[in-house]
Amino acid sequence: MAFLLSISLVIIFNAASAQITESDKGLTKSYFKFQARLKGGIGQTFVALPMNFNPVTINGIFDSTGKLKTVSDSKNDFLETKWGPYGGANMDFYFHPNFGFGVDFDYFGNKLKFITPQFISTFLDENPGISLAESNRKNQSFIFVGIGPSFKIFTSKKWDVDFNIRGGLSHLQMGSLTVSVQNLPQQFDAARNTILVYDYSKAMNVIGAKAGLYANYWFNGFVGVTVGVDFVHSFVQANKINDDPDYILQYKDPQYFTNTTGKFNDYLYFSNSIPLDTYQPGKMNINHFSASVGVVFKIAKGIKEPGVKRKDIVVLVKDSLTSIPVADVEVSLRDNKGTVLRTLKTESNGKVNFEDVEKGDYLVSGVKGELITSRARIENIEFNKKGQVIYKELLLNDLRFILAGVTVQCKNSDKPIGKVTIELTNTTSGKVLTVVSDDQGKFSFNLEPNSDYSISGNKDGYFSGIQEITTKGLDRSKTLYVRLVLCVEELKTDQIFVLPIYYDFDKCTIRQDASVELDRLVGLMNKYQKMEVELSSHTDQRGTDAYNNKLSQCRAESAVDYILGKGISKERITAVGYGKTRILEDCTKIQGCPTDSKGDCPCHQKNRRTEVKIIRM
Q1: Is 129 helix (H, G, I), strand (E, B) or coil?
Q2: What is the rounded CA–CA span in Å between residue 149 and residue 397?
Q3: Helices in 219-338 by DSSP H: which ranges?
């Protein structure tokens, strides 16, 4: 084992001293990274005991011919292992961002457990004072040392995932355990009170193979935390154990010591004349599994080639009118032939960093949807100047605004909802645009100046109302971003969401702008055929109860009649007018909010609403 480890380390460190180049979309640079992981957790053996045996001769039990009975399908159902401590370490050497190799060290410790047969348990219950006793206990221990390839199967700024394959040496001690019955009465012969003798404590060294999967979160460029799983298979040959007298497994199975009624014959079982049966494994597969957490370290750098000058190119993208940094702009680095070498997306500070770029002539430019930035050239001569960084600025020269939105759960604005299809309608021009929010619920549109928009979101199992935004009155020289939080409701029984439906004063007829929202509800009910709803109308506090009840009921029925006219069954929708009985806010407590029919205020507008309550999904 020590020799194999020494040879592995010599190979690794000799390779580490070499300069291996990597091609990164046209940019040539040398690459090297050392990564170390220390981990601890719990481990278990899928199989680390002799389980299936060669035919076993049952001592004391005779077949019809008078010969000792033989059982050919005997299995180990009397010993098992329990979860135990696990510790390990990995050293990985990468000469490419995604490929490398390394050395692993792993330790498992598992406790042996005797599974008491039902016959013995019943016998102990019926004979107080008699008990089982264990001796010669040595729990299992397992050490694996291996070498093999390492892979980075996922990489981001803070996260990466490693997959390692190793081949090497397994050093295994499978433990020992003797089980006896204590305090047998005088009528039993105590010389046969031992029922199990298991001794596989002699160490064995065999070939092993391992696979490991680890997810790493990096606090910075040096240290992070890791969680992972490991699986080790050790190739143990059963015939070598059968030929070695140091491996002993003897057991007296109580199921073969019963009378004609099936009752346990304890006198025959403990008879001095019947020895223990000897079990020899027919097959040995040794498998270990672990789950662990730990810390991970890395040292990574590009190895510069002699005589070749390299620098980092930092690009800042900002708005030409407001000088605000622009995030999520895709900035491309091209060579003098126009070939894209790398593309990076700007962060919230508007910057990207192209690291370790070889001396040459380059062009940088950026795009964000339909928006295009200016261009900037990097000349060969700039690599000769002092400093390690070349700075460039790109300007966004566009009079349009940027809508920066996020989709969230309506009752929990801190919980983003991703993968929502967002539809933006320019109500001024009629143009419709569609995007899908990312996993964090973020989405973006470009907005024309002096225009009105409506926006809505759709996702299976969710629904949003239509929100209105406008760029009218916004000064582009002072404002770049229009920010929006679009909330979506989960479609479930008893869920209530508000429809932005408006009626003319003292009327209940459906206006054209209300029909758009009702059409969305029709589409939703067509999609979910079992959906039943209550559509309710609410008024503000002004006016008499009778007047508001009548008006709200009329408005609710008008909305329902519109939906029925679109083919929805009347059994699936109910109209209810609540008048002013369910106000959201008491407007009489709001200073400046009128109490008569003259004028209006946001509080009254909030109370005048149309709601949909899901009765059944």
Answers
A1: coil
A2: 49
A3: 238-242, 266-269
Where does the pLDDT of residue 200 fall: very low under 50, low under 70, confident under 90, or very high at 90 and above? very high
pLDDT at 339 over 50: yes
Average pLDDT over residues 548-558: 91
pLDDT tens string 59-77: 877 777 778 878 777 888 8
What pLDDT is recorded for position 554? 92
Q: Average model confidence (pLDDT) for the chain? A: 86
Res 1: pLDDT: 39
Contacts of 452 (CB under 8 A, 6+ apart): 426, 427, 428, 468, 469, 470, 472
Question: How many helices (H) and strands (E) in the chain?
Answer: 7, 41
Q: How far apart, in Å, are the Cα atoms of 393 and each of 113, 366, 376, 380, 470?
A: 69, 11, 7, 18, 30
Domains and CATH numbers, the chain: 2-26+34-300 (2.40.160.20), 309-396 (2.60.40.10), 399-490 (2.60.40.10), 492-617 (3.30.1330.60)
In the DSSP assignment, the letter for residue 543 is S
Are 297 and 222 in contact by the 8 Å Cβ rule? The answer is: yes
Alpha carbons within 13 angstroms on the beta-carbon side of residue 576 total 13
Structure tokens at 284: 């040995």
Residue 87, pLDDT score: 96
Which tokens belong to 336?
A: 């003098």
* Pair 279, 238: CB distance under 8 Å: no
